[in-house]
Amino acid sequence: MALIVQKYGGTSVGSVERIHAVAERVARYLARGDQVVVVVSAMSGETNRLVELGRSVSARPLAREMDVLTAAGEQVTIALVAMALSDRGHPGKSYLADQVAIRTDSSFGKARISAIDTERLLADLASGIVPVVAGFQGVDDDGNLTTLGRGGSDTTAVAIAAALGADECEICTDVDGVYTADPRIVDDARRMSQVTFEEMLELASLGSKVLHPRSVEFAGKYRVPLRVMSSFEDGPGTLITMESNEMEQPIVSGIAYSRDEAKITMAGVPDVPGVASRILGPIGRAPIEVDMIVQNTGADGLTDFTFTVKRDDYERALEMLGAVQTELGARDLSGDNRIAKVSVVGVGMRSHAGVATRLFDALAAENINIQMISTSEIKISIVVAERYLELAVRCIHDAFELGAVEAEEE
Amino acid sequence: MALIVQKYGGTSVGSVERIHAVAERVARYLARGDQVVVVVSAMSGETNRLVELGRSVSARPLAREMDVLTAAGEQVTIALVAMALSDRGHPGKSYLADQVAIRTDSSFGKARISAIDTERLLADLASGIVPVVAGFQGVDDDGNLTTLGRGGSDTTAVAIAAALGADECEICTDVDGVYTADPRIVDDARRMSQVTFEEMLELASLGSKVLHPRSVEFAGKYRVPLRVMSSFEDGPGTLITMESNEMEQPIVSGIAYSRDEAKITMAGVPDVPGVASRILGPIGRAPIEVDMIVQNTGADGLTDFTFTVKRDDYERALEMLGAVQTELGARDLSGDNRIAKVSVVGVGMRSHAGVATRLFDALAAENINIQMISTSEIKISIVVAERYLELAVRCIHDAFELGAVEAEEE
Q1: The domain containing residue A71 runs over which residues?
Q2: How far apart are CA A226 and CA A242, in angstroms?
Q3: Do B271 and B152 sit in the same domain of this protein?
Q4: Quick check: B278 contacting A, CB < 8 Å?
Q5: Looking at the structure, do residues A150 and A59 belong to the same domain, yes or no?
Q6: Which residues of B touch A54 (CB under 8 A)?
Q7: Chain A closest CA to B153's CA: distance in Å?
Q8: Cross-strand pairs, B269
Q9: ipTM here
Q10: Which residue among B174, B192, B211 closes a domain?
Q11: If chain A, 410 residues long, is cut into consecutive pieces of 10 residues, what is the mean pLDDT of each piece?
Q12: What is the pTM of this model?
């Protein structure tokens, strides 16, 4: 018997049938004596439909109103799931963000949760009611509706689990866990039975779509045990743990990638202080998000400065730098929007030398040229031409023997 | 310069183009110095879509959850209208029911408004913001979302107008006013420049779809000047007034009809006290709404008892009365679900004898048999076979010369 918060994403509540399947799944937990709080997203496609509707009305839709608009999606699913539960004899009760006081700041479209009032939820649980809470949304101090941005429902679930001191927060989705690499690319990719928060955070930030980094961060901060599992099939999923309890940590846990990348190089820039800020200043103010930054200085007193941006921002960033190039007297400005980033992640990396060597050897053996390298304590990211992406992921997966059978949890 | 509450129905906000047309219309009022509060319904078809979705999930959907579900429709339109206004340089701000504290009782699906907090609305108006309020919904004392039932957005608009002491409440819709009869049936039906609350209430209750009776009742009670007008075309519409200020009141103002009728007759019932309640008791408890009731007693001590119900309830009502017939020893139980009700309404009726005669003569001249008659101070309703409906409406319209040109308001 445990107190569990379960979050069901858009695909899991994407049709009447699937909503009934969710109710059925919740009922199984209740039958074994668990208490469950359900958090749901909008039905798949609905949030995008609403965003499109907003954009078709206004080229620059008000942020406040976009939040009111998109929050309507979750309102529909909480009602439907509560009905489906009640049909099975388990009284369900829907809650909008303001009804359980999911307080956020006023950053419309990307609000951050500051507090949750658990009084109603606890009263419901005590009287056998299953609260069904709208994910993705909140309410600010002035009573304005806010939304939490992409992955917001995961964050809602984790925040509720933290506030309730739940035993576990289950992120129920259309995959059965977190894999060592994308199974669509790597045939022998393996579901991890567990992964540490640090690793999951890197994997999530680096393009693994299973969990949103903010929810992982939140879960780590409040020490909420988080589990990624399938809404549709039984199975243990992947547990995201504080610390790995395996005797020997694998050097590399998983591989993430992102296609959504472009790089820009300003070459032959006089190497004087302040160059980086002259180049990145206008980009940051745009605002365009910059990911990797690499600077190499040659013997001639000139430096090459390269950074990556999201592919959508590429044209705009390149255009802005035209003026900067002239200003700085840089020799050349060029870019490439057909690149991809591949990252290997693992807490074991800290204590093992030679990870980089093994990685570079594997790529060299396949004649894949590495365009950029960036490292952190538990990850190494490389940029390669997009056409090599799949090959790179596969050969790295092999090099670190990630496909080998892991001892299954008891 | 005036303070005006404008309500736009589902057809008026049924597409992106129409939402822009609404914003354009509001902007014209603002340009001449008026202050405007906008109340909107869900986009046409949306409420039905949500109701269907709820029914497809549950055969007996929870009333509380149906309200949460359907209220999502208005949430979408308030955001879109606020955006469209802001695009025209008139800052719009959307409000859900709970954000302006539209308090109701807890009768889900047919809640009644008890209070509205005007503080935010007044503050917005003072600073040049156009509040855009979700119609149809409210919040009860426990913070549960409620809905007001059919015609609910009209009621919201009237209630807000009453709370603000607005100069006028405009019901903007897809027709340009209230007509002497349905223009689809009567060629020379004429838009009334004004009509009294009493008349409008009868016309609304009797099947004229333009305004919901509850909103008319509400407007009458709080003396809110109400105007029905087109969202799409300019024009004065129809003003619903406290008292007619015309020197001579027309005997009959308008004609309403309803096809949605069925009658049931229990014949040859022993005429003893309590028979009516024995017959209508089970019907009322079902609950099935009963409209007209007629009882005729013959010389033989037996009575015929006839009443009308909505056509949807016909089969069920007939079935329930089988047992009652046996119990009462009534000679016959029969019914007809191919009937229609036609009503003539007019405050002038009070002071004019002969209205009934003129009505009956007109029908007799067309050989239309009257099956039931019911009268009130300002209306006469008759039941005829459904196939005579159009003919009856037309000949009555002619008989009272309703098509004659009315002196147009200045």
Answers
A1: 3-174
A2: 10
A3: no
A4: no
A5: yes
A6: 79-80, 83
A7: 18
A8: B303
A9: 0.79
A10: B174
A11: 95 96 97 97 95 95 96 97 96 96 94 94 96 97 93 94 96 91 90 90 75 87 93 92 66 89 91 82 87 80 88 93 91 94 86 81 92 86 94 94 62
A12: 0.82
